[in-house]
Amino acid sequence: MEEIVIPQRKPRKFIGEEFLLTSWAEVQPLYENLVSRAITNVDDLRQWFIDRSELESYLSENMAWRYIKMTCDTASEENQKNYQFFVEQIQPQLSVYNDQLNKKALESPYLDELKDQGFDIAIRGMKKAVEIFCEDNIPLETQIQTKQTEYQAITGAMTVTINGEEMTLPKAGDLLQSPDRTLREEAWTKISERRYQEHEKFDALFNELRDLRHQVAKNAGFANYRDYTFAALGRFDYTPQDCFNFHEAVAETVVPLVDKMAKERKEKLKVEELRPWDLKVDVDGKPALKPFSDGENLLDKTVQCFQKIDGKLADYIRIMRRMGHFDVESRKGKAPGGYNYPLEEIGVPFIFMNATSSLRDVVTMVHEGGHAIHSFEVRDLPINYFRSTPSEVAELASMSMELISMEHWEVFFDNEEDLKRAKVEHLEDILEVLPWIATIDKFQHWIYENPTHSIEERQQAWLKIYELFSDSVTTWKGYERFKKYVWQRQLHVFELPFYYIEYGMAQLGAISVWRNYKQDARKGLEGYLNALKLGYTAPIGKIYEAANVKFDFSKEYIAELMAFVETELEKLK
Q1: What is the mean pLDDT of residues 50-62?
Q2: 2 pLDDT higher than 70
Q3: Of the candidates 313, 300, 299, 322, which has an alpha carbon nearest to the alpha carbon of residue 376?
């Protein structure tokens, strides 16, 4: 086999090879250089952008490692302190300088001469950033970031004891797939009870975050935080009304399919009432699928799976592995969830997740693997802005890989029956997640359109929205107190407000990418990679076009894709 070469970081020409961040004092002269530098022609301007990118890439990666270490061990005071140092000492200074640099670029008489692909997109973003920048928001943003880490610390410390064993909530969640209904009920109740113990703490934390965010929006001249966030996230390609259309389309075209699935589940399980702990178990009473034995085995099999798609993709995972850019197993003190963190200088990302041994873990791995592929595909783009894709594109990369890789899941499941079952479970999950995405997004619109709401009003709004997108079969009788707080398990609501609808839009794109791949694997993969290579050098619609799919969330398009998924499910059953 050909030797895999670990990519080298590009030499630091502007900030120097020996540069090391220990305080703001080292960084400031570099920013002052960029602010005061004379730009006398278009080549000077292009070099100025490259130098700015080099500095920002270094700082981005420095911040990344602080975040990675903090989430890998939330109990470490040193990790928390190192992360807080960047948030409190470095980031507030960056906001002011970024605004100055954006203005300098926009005022340059040579700006129109920059014809390289992508600069038009970058300039559009800079104009919006200048428009919404407000110096009064810098300390508020610091407060928000500090507050958000409290959510990770609370959830990372949560454990439950079942059958005498103390376990993390992700590990306890695996028991919801047990054929033993009594054990499932115990696991679900203990997980819900453990989360519920913290509901007042979460409510208080969220109220603080909501109030800080609303103040940020007001300071920047917006009516509410939703409108501010649409501007801050650079949502040039769709509006809140498009989100409302998405909610409506999902309620009309997807929820009926989920309702039908719930009725079938109730019948097959032969239960008098379908309960929340009955939703993950195999309907034929089979034990949970075990696609891998431990973290190393998961990585081995992921490499094999990606090799079947394309050797280059497998090499990306091999490179990350050799560099120690994985932390995949669930353990106490580790933050919840999973992510792929791009590392801007080296261009080789880091994958973090909480694997136990479930199918969900396989999906998380190939999902984050899709993000990792994206990081590799854009690493040679010259400016960091070109590599920073919007979420609607980033999630297309990850969600498409879930479905493309599914065509090669025989690596994880060595018998046909388990393989079919895994595919059915995943496709059903996709149908179920679209209503959940609509629920969370609609709830967030309500929250920030009503910024002075009480906790009781929030509970009522949540329940009303939750019912719109839920099946009519599952009953929460006796556990209504937990239902009121289901939203608190969604990290995005606390840490990444409004970053969730993108999953829905990208899911639709991913189904189309998968449909293309099934029709012609070579051409489908080529389109997928063509889209990823663009980074953020084109509008979202054009990037989707490069993958030969539509950026569309109309009722008609969603109905068409749901019909395709339903047909594929029928073939597997």
Answers
A1: 98
A2: no
A3: 313
